[in-house]
Structure formats: structure tokens, C-alpha cells
Amino acid sequence: xxxxxxxxxxxxxxxxxxxxxxxxxxxxxxxxxxxxxxxxxxxxxxxxxxxxxxxxxxxxxxxxxxxxxxxxxxxxxxxxxxxxxxxxxxxxxxxxxxxxxxxxxxxxxxxxxxxxxxxxxxxxxxxxxxxxxxxxxxxxxxxxxxxxxxxxxxxxxxxxxxxxxxxxxxxxxxxxxxxxxxxxxxxxxxxxxxxxxxxxxxxxxxxxxxxxxxxxxxxxxxxxxxxxxxxxxxxxxxxxxxxxxxxxxxxxxxxxxxxxxxxxxxxxxxxxxxxxxxxxxxxxxxxxxxxxxxxxxxxxxxxxxxxxxxxxxxxxxxxxxxxxxxxxxxxxxxxxxxxxxxxxxxxxxxxxxxxxxxxxxxxxxxxxxxxxxxxxxxxxxxxxxxxxxxxxxxxxxxxxxxxxxxxxxxxxxxxxxxxxxxxxxxxxxxxxxxxxxxxxxxxxxxxxxxxxxxxxxxxxxxxxxxxxxxxxxxxxxxxxxxxxxxxxxxxxxxxxxxxxxxxxxxxxxxxxxxxxxxxxxxxxxxxxxxxxxxxxxxxxxxxxxxxxxxxxxxxxxxxxxxxxxxxxxxxxxxxxxxxxxxxxxxxxxxxxxxxxxxxxxxxxxxxxxxxxxxxxxxxxxxxxxxxxxxxxxxxxxxxxxxxxxxxxxxxxxxxxxxxxxxxxxxxxxxxxxxxxxxxxxxxxxxxxxxxxxxxxxxxxxxxxxxxxxxxxxxxxxxxxxxxxxxxxxxxxxxxxxxxxxxxxxxxxxxxxxxxxxxxxxxxxxxxxxxxxxxxxxxxxxxxxxxxxxxxxxxxxxxxxxxxxxxxxxxxxxxxxxxxxxxxxxxxxxxxxxxxxxxxxxxxxxxxxxxxxxxxxxxxxxxxxxxxxxxxxxxxxxxxxxxxxxxxxxxxxxxxxxxxxxxxxxxxxxxxxxxxxxxxxxxxxxxxxxxxxxxxxxxxxxxxxxxxxxxxxxxxxxxxxxxxxxxxxxxxxxxxxxxxxxxxxxxxxxxxxxxxxxxxxxxxxxxxxxxxxxxxxxxxxxxxxxxxxxxxxxxxxxxxxxxxxxxxxxxxxxxxxxxxxxxxxxxxxxxxxxxxxxxxxxxxxxxxxxxxxxxxxxxxxxxxxxxxxxxxxxxxxxxxxxxxxxxxxxxxxxxxxxxxxxxxxxxxxxxxxxxxxxxxxxxxxxxxxxxxxxxxxxxxxxxxxxxxxxxxxxxxxxxxxxxxxxxxxxxxxxxxxxxxxxxxxxxxxxxxxxxxxxxxxxxxxxxxxxxxxxxxxxxxxxxxxxxxxxxxx
Length: 1272
Description:
The chain is 59% helix and 0% strand. By secondary structure, the protein is an all-alpha fold.
């Protein structure tokens, strides 16, 4: 029982006497003692057991009366009165109270410096010597007393106690355990809690005390421990103890203390290894890996069944379990070489594991063991690493090659294990050299190596600069940041951080070391000087000498990475001298089979690459003088490369090389005004990068160029437009306002909205750059100028951005012919469409502009990937991929690749699929590597592309008849193209997540046109097809979704679910019986329904195994209708002439089918209607797709007609379908951006009204020029 803490314990020397009783000591007479004792007797006689306050108050007095002075007093009256008092004391106080009181006094042992410590030690010594607490076994509440005693002793022990204190504590506790009938769970918890890592770290002495206690009492306590683990592990009774969640930590600690403590527990772990719960198996594997891998562990030999069961987990279905087993193998090989034979076969299987991380860790395991001792790894294990140098994944190949290189360096170059070991791995050199013959772009790591070296040199220089500053908190924080950045680029970043901190401390204390390091990273340091510096630095760090010094090894690694081992100022100077010889004509280029011009261009290209990675090595007057000569050469490519080298390396020209500066500035001005477009771009960026007065310099270029703009001379416009665009982007604060008037009055009004020349009417859809008219090239640069101007401002509050987006949309709607005067050639229109689509995509990369891009504009941009011109599709797809893979574009733009399913060219479809795979892989890897990405899953998780894809397909201009077989089949192809890649793996139950997401979309309305019944109907039909595709691909999609998907409010509006369910479509489970009746094989799990056969109508075998191509009949019905115009025999395929628009009779309309599943009234009256539509869906899945014709290799690709435009031969039967294919309406929004006849019943959009004018108006006022007001 607990006492109220009202009085201090007797140990404090304060004894409370009854009122009127003075202190009783040996210094007063016996008569006075008797007198005072009589009053004490009276007090105890009047007390009862319920007087808790008085009991606590006079407890110290009771103990005082039991002292030797009273018990052995010669006066019999005194002894009699004391006996009376003691009799009452035993009546009032229970024995439990006495022992709990004594236990509380033991807390005084905590402070060894206290004056009373000797008395507390005396109390502990007596209790341990006579085993006083053992008499408590007869008490009913003995367990409570023991628990309090154990808790007290474990809490007070600390590192100031000597061995005697610990010995007495041990004697006191061990006697209770060994002489009792058993240990209760509560008392066992009191001991075991000190073994848990958190408690162990808080009080190391308590951990040592518990460990010693368990060792001493192993025979007695083992049964109690076994019972505890049996209840938790086997019976699953986690409530028996608060330590149940720490069982695996406890097993590890108990095994380290004495394996005998777990004699009966190990078989229980074998049972747990076979658990159905993957996470539980993982926890047991982690535990056993530590037990088997411990250095002195004999568990594998003593418990072979458990060892064999553990090895079986190498083949576990759960990836983390296999990964943990592979990581364990490294420790096992190093600590238990005798088990290598058992591990070899399992590592062989895992070296071919489908998971990249597991194959990678197999290599790390083998290499780490080999670096410790080559004899630990046999030839078979090294063979596994050799195989992985050809792995399909770069990360695995890199690890295998680096590992083998480290072994070769250690045992062959440094001869650390004798000739026999060197001979064993002599094959490594040849193997690594042969790898350089591979053509994989990932393996070309030279540039990356140079970039990493340059970055590390910069970080070390910044660190040394910080050492020159006075010591301050800010300085220390900056140093820490640099050290962390350096450590990230070294192997084993965790250890590298500690070593870099230590190295930084040494740098702060040793000035000579800092001087050597500064010399090493100096641009003037040669390779020979670098070797001397590295030797001096390592010599300073090897004192005192140690057999192994991991700190020194890490510093050596850093020095090797920052030392100029192949490229330094001397090497650059040598390259420049060779370049000068070629410029002067004194080189032997002709003898080597190259022309001087080619040699100069190639030499500058090499220098340009080095300027990115070794900019400081270029900083010399000689180098820059040679580059100035290159700037004056007539070769445009040479001058462009020279400007870029200045841009990359010339940061110190203004302060240190004034003569170079004075010569360079006029040349850059001239290139920015009259050079090629590429030279102008580099010149503007060069001025902005290397000059302090860049504002003045740029203004001197901007003002004359802005005054000289003349749309009547387009060939002289291109370079000024490039320069002005880049100036406005680099210095928006200075030039944004002047650019606004230029954009409104010249760019839009004079240039883009006017066609001054007539294009070549040869009917080609694409021509070479040289054949493009200067006016169109100027318009393309004008569009780019608009984008750069907006990217510089980064402001979506002004109307300029909206007006520009409307202009770009109008460019797409009008197919590139913004004025609709029919003056522009088809090839020039293709260029302008590509420029407009790319411009919208570029603006979408800036968040402030992405927010204002409407769904209609997004759809117009995305449909460029289905352009009739092959080159437009190709270039646009490449730009889209590059922006997505760098995570620059929002996720919705990934949905555009779904439209590639309709591309008639097999290579384009294959390229699109590879782009999808790469983008999805990049996003998944980014989420894994960045924990903070979990907060942005909506914008990163690839599965979230599905809502955008469904919305995009629902607004596909080809999707005009939602119940027509061919159009539904096209939708299915596009959905499958994306979903097949997304559903390759069912990670985290993603299939159910996709199903849930599509079902949620069916509970919304189309935010683009929420009141348009037909648009919503098309949206729900696309959802239905998507659900069929998902269900056909996966049997796990019907499980519960791990989380509720989030839909983009920009595209979907939440509506009343009841209205949707009953008004638009039945729920998905209802059609299942119909599907089963119509198409039994559809429900077979895992069946692949997209088979490919060759029909009589096929002309070539171009099918893809991953996306079903379209039949020739389908092609004739979609946006890719082509009519090849044959010209000369030298050209096998040319772009065709534009087909005329075929209009249908105005009053004629196509009646929708009565059996649509979205007309609920008909469903209720005619049950067969639902059957018919679902049968149509099933037929789409059963259809065996035919194959497409692709253009002959080496020739221009055959054109594909713009969507909605029938070929001449198909005009009659399709006329009724094509009548309304004009500019986009407010509802559909995805009017494809192709010129069409306007539907007499449709209302053109506001954008169309503002941008287009009727032909009648053109005839009446031909001289009037139209414009888009960018200033409103």
C-alpha cells in the first residue's frame, strides 16, 4: 500500500512525537525516559488501523523505538513500556507497510554524495545479508512488495555506485527469484523492461544489473520467460504484458545474454516464420537474421530445423522479406564462413530476382564480404556479380561494376592478399574493359563523372572559404550544410557524414592542411601537383598510425574525386593549342582524314562539354583569346559553341581580364542583333551570366532591336525576336512593360494576324527547315517570344496570359491558318500548329499559368499528338516526354499519351509506350526516394492520370456517337494503352484503387459542361469501358480500395449520387450476369483478350504486343484517314493534298440508338436493351484486331487526315456524320483545332467569335486587320 507523502521519512532524521512529548534520547535520565514513554504508549493505545494519517505521522517513531537503545535498555520499566508500544505497533501496522517503508528508504542510495549515504548502504547491506525480504513469501501481498523493491533498485542504480552496492542489490533480488515458488508476469516485466533499447540507452547500469540477474537465475527464470513468449507468440495474448509489442527486441537481448534463456522459445519462432502475415514474417526474419549472423552465434549448428526454415524465406513471396534475407547474408558470410555453402544456392536465385533492389543487394552482400576477405566469397558468388554487370537496370550494373573494380584495386593493384588472391580475380580487368563497348546511353558516365567532380570541388572550395571567416553560429550552420552535401556524394553517406565532420575539425586546426587542399582544388593545379598534394594530406592524417583507418580511407576517396586526374588547366591549354593549329592551318588534320573545319568544330564541341564540368580550367587569357578568334569565324556552329563556352566559364572575365571583356562585349552585341538565332540566344544568356552591368548591356540590345522590327522583312525578324524573347525572360522587371506594347502592336497585330506572302501549294505536310518560308519562321519565333515574355513575368493576374492562351488555342482551332485567308501552305501550317501546341505545354510548366489553362485549351494542346503530320506528332511527343520525365509538367499531361493508341505508325505507338513506362517509373521512384512526396500523391502518383485520361477521351472529337461500335472500340484501345502499363503490377492494391476511382467519376458531372446531357453521357460511357478493361485485366480489382481517390475539381463536379445512379447508368455489378451469358471467357481470371490475327485486308504486320492496333476500316473512320498522293518514282510516299470539307444536308440528323444503356426509361420498359449494349461492349473485347500499314523506312511518313475529315472515297456514306465538325463549342471544347464547316445549330465559342471573322467580312473589308487585345 502507498502512504501519503505528508511527512518526510525517518531517514531524513526527523521523528515526529505526540503532542507534549519531547525528544527521547540517551542523554536524558531514565525517569524522564519512562515519563515520556508513558505518553507515547497512551498515543499508540488510542490509535486504530484506520488512522492512516496518524500511522504515517508516527511511523518514524515506531522504527525509532525498535532501535538498540530501547530494546537493550537496562531499565526494566523502559523495556516494558517499549514492549507495550511495539505490541500496539504490530497491531496498527501490517508487515507489508513496514517492508514498503523500508523499500522507499532505499531510494536514498541514488545520491552517493549525500551525508546519509553510508546509512542507506548499511540498510541495503543488512537486508541483503540476512535476506530480510524472504519472509514476505508468507504475506498475501508479497508480489507488490517485490515489484516495488525491484523497481526501486533498478531506478536508483547509476554509474557512481561501486561494485559492493551492485553486489548487494544482486544478492537481494536473486534470493527472491531463486527461493520463491516462481516469478509473476508483473515481476518479470520489471526485469525485462530494462532490456528494451529505449530503456537500455537511458540507464546502462540498470541494463547491466538486469543482465547479470538473468544470468545468475537462468535455471529458475527460463520457465517463466518461456511461458511469457508462448502466450504472446503462439497464443496471441498480447494483453498479458505491456512488453508484448517488444517481444522480438527482448528475444534478441536474451539470446545475447544467455541462449539458455530461450531454449523453449526457438521452436515458437519456427512457427512464426510460416505465418500468413507478411509483416509478421518480416519481423521474425529480421530477428533471426541478427541471431544467426551474430559473430559468436552457434544457433545455426545447434538448431538446424530453424536454420533451414529461415533459409526458405529467401524465396518468400513478400519482397521485403526476401530483401531482408539478402541483407543478412552479408553479415553471415563475414561472421560464419562455414555457412557460405548453404547461402550460395539461395543467393544465386535471388541474383535473378525480378525486383531490382534485391538484385542490387545481392551484389552489395557479396562485394562487402569480398572486401573484408576474398576467401569469404567463392568463385560461384563472384560469378553472380559478373552476370549482373549485364543487368537490364543501370543501378544494378553500376553496383556490379563498381564492386568488381574495388576488389581489383584492393587485391590486384594494392596486393593486399598475395598473388593467389590476385590471380583469382584477374579476369575482372578484362570484364570491365569489355563493358565499355556497350552502346547503352546510361553507361556513358564520363560526363556525369566530370559533373560530380566539378560539383565536389565547388563544395570543398566553399567550405575552405567558410574557414576563413570569423567563427559564428551562422558560419557553423553553413559549414554543416556543405559537409552534408559533400557526404551525399561519397559512399555510405551515413558514415561519411561523421568522417566529414571530423575532417572539417582537422581542417580548422591545421592551416597547412587547408593550404594543401586549396592548392588541390585550384584551377591552376596540374595533375602532378595534385599527386603531391594528395600525398601530403594523407601523410598528415595517418598520424598516429593505425592498422585500419576508415576515416583516412574516406578522405582518400574524397581527394580522388576532387583531384584533377585527367582534366586540368594544362589539359585545356593543350586542347586549345591544338585548336589554334587547326584555326591557323598548321595542324595535320588532312593527314588524319578530317578537314580543318571539321577539326575546329569537333574540338570546340569537346571544349563545350568540358566547359560545363570544368569551367575554372578555362580561366586564362590564352584560352579566351583563342575563343575570340572562333567567334570571328564564318562557321555559325563554331561561333555558337564559343559563345556557350564563354557563358559557362566567363564569370571572372569582368574583374580579372578587362582586355578580354572589352573585346567580347561588342561581339556579343553584334551576335545578339545580327547573328543566327542560336547565337543570339547564347549571346543574351552570356551577357546575363558574366557581366555585372547586365541591365545596361541588355538595354543597349533591346532598344535598337525593338525600334527596328519590320514585319515586311520577315527574314530579318528572326534573330531580333529570339533576342527580345530571351531578354524579356531573363530581365522581366526591366523589360516586361516595354514588351507589352511590342507584343500587342507588333507581334500580334502586324505579324501573327497577317499573312503577307503566299505559301507553296505543293500539298506537303512537312518540309525541311530550309524550305520553310521566312514569314512562318518569324511567326514561330513570335509565338516563342510570347511564351518567354510570360515565363519571365510569372503573373497570371494580368489578362495577357489569358489572351495569349486564347491566341494559341485559335492557332490550333484554325489548323495553323489564323487568318483563314488560305495563303499559308500545309507544311507551314504544320509548323505553326506544332509551335502553338508546344507553347501551351511550355506555359503549363509554370504553376501560375497552369492554373488558368482551361480544360478546352488542355484538350486542344493534347490533340496535337494526333496531328495529321507525322513530324508534328513525333516532335510534340518527344517534347511532352522530356517535360514529363523531368517532372516539369502536371500529371494530367501524361494522359495525352493515351491518344497515341490510334497512331497508325507502329514505331510511334511503341515510342509512346516507352515514354509511358519511363514516366511512370520515374514518378514511382521519386515517391519512394522522397518521403515528403507522400503529401503530394495527387500530383505524383501515376494512377491519378486515369481521371484526366477519361475526361480527355470523353471529349475526343472522334467520339461523336457514344453507342457506335467503332468509336467504342477506339475508346477501348486508348484506355487499354494506358491501363495496360499502369496495371503491370498490383502495388498496394492499386487495381482496386483504379476501379474505385472510375466508379467515383461516375458519381460526378463533367465540370467542363455540367448541364450538357450528352457530354455527361459520353463521360459515363468511357467510365464503363474503363471498368470493363480493369475487370478484364485484374481479378483483384474488386477488393477494397486502400484509400478513397481524389478527383480534380477542375474536371469533375460532385452531384447527387441517387440522381446519377437512377438517371444515367445502372451500377456495375448488375451487368455481370448478362456478361456471363454473353461472353463466358471474359470472366476467366488473367485472360488476355487482345489477340492478333492477320486478315485478308491486312497489308503489313505492324501489331504491337502491348497495344492493339486499329484495322484499316477503323482508320478510315477516325482522325487518321489518309489519302496518299503519289508523285515521282523517287518518292514512295508523300503528304497528300487537303481534302475538301464535305457537308451534309442541314436538316438531316442521325437518330441515336434506342437501346442505349443510359436511357433508364427504355431499360425499365425493354429489358433486352441493356443486354444489347452490354453485348456490344463484350464484342469490342472479343474483336480480333487487324493490322496497320506503316510508312516505308527512309521515306516521308504517310499523312493522316485530321480528325473528323473523311477521305474522298468515303465522303458519301460519312457525310451525315461530319456535318457538325467545326470549331469547338462551349460544351465539347475539344474541337480538335481543325478547320471545319460550322454546324448551323451550334453556338461558336467566345474565343472563336473574337478570333475568327466570316468570309463575307473578309470580302467587304479586306484591308482591315484583326487582332487579339492583349492589354485588356
